[in-house]
Amino acid sequence: MRRFIGVDEIEDMALGATVLGAGGGGDPYVGKLMAIEAIRKYGDVELITPDEVPDDAVVVVSQMMGAPTIMVEKICSGLEPMATYDEMVKELGVEPYAIYAVEAGGVNSTIPFILGATRRIPVVDCDLMGRAFPELQMTTLGINGVKGQPAVLADEKGNTVTVRAIDDRWLERIARQATSVMGGYTILASYMCTGRQLKDFAIPGTPTLCEKIGRTLREAREMHADPIAAVLEVTRGHRLFKGKVVDVERNTDGMFVRGRAVVAGLDDDKGRELVIEFQNENIIARADGRALCTSPDLIMSLDMESGTPVTTEGLKYGARIVVVGMPCDDQWRTPEGLAVVGPRAFGYDLDYVPVEELAATEGGR
Amino acid sequence: MRRFIGVDEIEDMALGATVLGAGGGGDPYVGKLMAIEAIRKYGDVELITPDEVPDDAVVVVSQMMGAPTIMVEKICSGLEPMATYDEMVKELGVEPYAIYAVEAGGVNSTIPFILGATRRIPVVDCDLMGRAFPELQMTTLGINGVKGQPAVLADEKGNTVTVRAIDDRWLERIARQATSVMGGYTILASYMCTGRQLKDFAIPGTPTLCEKIGRTLREAREMHADPIAAVLEVTRGHRLFKGKVVDVERNTDGMFVRGRAVVAGLDDDKGRELVIEFQNENIIARADGRALCTSPDLIMSLDMESGTPVTTEGLKYGARIVVVGMPCDDQWRTPEGLAVVGPRAFGYDLDYVPVEELAATEGGR
């Protein structure tokens, strides 16, 4: 049965994607409005499964790169996804069969639908992370040896840049610098791959899971049920900590939003202190000198009452949150995956331990 | 009569271009060797006049961008001019009729001949500065409203980047950042324009003038004549100062080589002190609290004995030099030209006074 994504689905998807964004991936507000605007104007977007993409067809990502804090204040012109797509078509010499999302996250889950609606191209129900990560080489294509380039970047002024890099780390370096000088964030067409590669290496179903998380959260609120319990059930997540944000350090260096939040425990966690460190996404959560959850597992702050996900740029003094940990996709738990997104890849001298094991040691809190 | 540039002409041209490089444009050694290698392998390169380019034909520049100090230590792979040319052809959809140089300067005067020899494409006898300047928007095309983009950048590792900017200042910003992260310098294909625009706005004859200056200098040395007097005659230049370099501050920030040299006077200038400030190129020369020469006029250090031009990266303690000032092309002396390359464009609170007027006030020293 053909499935179409309309305004209601985008609302749920953007909310759920912000949960899987693990603190990053951007505030859903701007991206959601852009996708809704495009869908209202051009119609619903077909969501196809990876299996529906022919093996030799080409698919590309439409995404945002840079500091989400900047995108909230300096919004898009709205033309960037199409500008990058057109340059990508010129670069490849073929029209892509479909668009897909690089990651789950407030902005990057909805951007493909702007392009999909405007250009009447289907979106594939998959992504390359099953969550959000801060750097371009951090994809399931990358750990399987498929390069994420060429990439085309566009800013809101009309500048475009095409990067053909020798590997994904060089793509990350060059595109990050260009993004910085182009104003802190850019919209990209990227991660060209074949249908075969998508079936072999992408994480299927992430957009649908985002929608399901968003719908679950919305319905729990409507029925006055516990929204956090509902989120934990659908994400197989663990309640890590409950508390009040008492300090936030946030530093935008033009490339990433880096910083830490200190959360003072409430109720069962009274007297304890949790520290979350982030680089766009939440990377590590520690209390009492030990890690409760680390990348690549997902760390997410949810508003204590409404269950609304709070991204790193939305964290502020006084926010009462429940911090949850969710297991990542199994591809990230391999040596190849951990080499790129494990704690050491972010500079922490820590071995990765799955969140469910850490939670069991913690005593099933 | 058809004219060809071979190894001997390249030798003279590289030497003379370093004089017109005004301290910048790169050390001639590496660029010259690369051009000679290509000419030995593929044959001499035809040098045509701007008048020989059909009005509607397309021409492009082959050039180096970045800090010349880095290029001396981390040399090219040798493939960059061809890699950027091929991407430019793909970008434009047409084969250029000819190649030309963006500026006079040790490296940038010879790079077009690498591509010309390798691909059997003529080089046009013109440039866009009549000297060297440090930033991409500083061209006679630019002050006449012709944009220097698209531009394709390549590094020695094999990364390429295509920049399509809304104006030359954005081109400069984006390409400069990309160049910085790609390793401090890149080779570019750039300044696509038509034969008509070249005839209207380029400075004709600069490569031939470079060759003439180099030949004059070489012959003066061979005949034990005064090489500096010979250079001054052919460039309509002025002797500004004679002395010994007693201090050099040089700072490579990954984008430009900025700094200053202090020269203690000798002979007629004994007891005086000259300060040269540079940003890749020499921008201003001052003594006794007044300017002796400022951009866009050319300031050049020549070895006191041999007349060999000393670029800013070659300046060192103890060097005995004669500092000369040469009038720039008249296009730079217009309000449009001075807005882009006058002293104020480089941050100096000074009005431009032509070097010949300053020299007359100085008493014809």
Automatic annotation (TrEMBL), chains A, B:
Q: Where is the S-Me-THD N-terminal domain?
A: 9-164
Q: Where are the transmembrane segments?
A: none
Outline the extent of the S-Me-THD-like C-terminal domain: 167-355
Which Gene3D superfamilies does its entry note? CV3147-like (2.40.390.10), CV3147-like domain (3.40.1610.10)
Pfam families the record matches: S-Me-THD_C, S-Me-THD_N
Under the heading InterPro entries, the entry gives: S-Me-THD-like_C, S-Me-THD_C_sf, S-Me-THD_N, S-Me-THD_N_sf
Spell out the protein name for this chain: DUF917 family protein
The organism is Adlercreutzia mucosicola
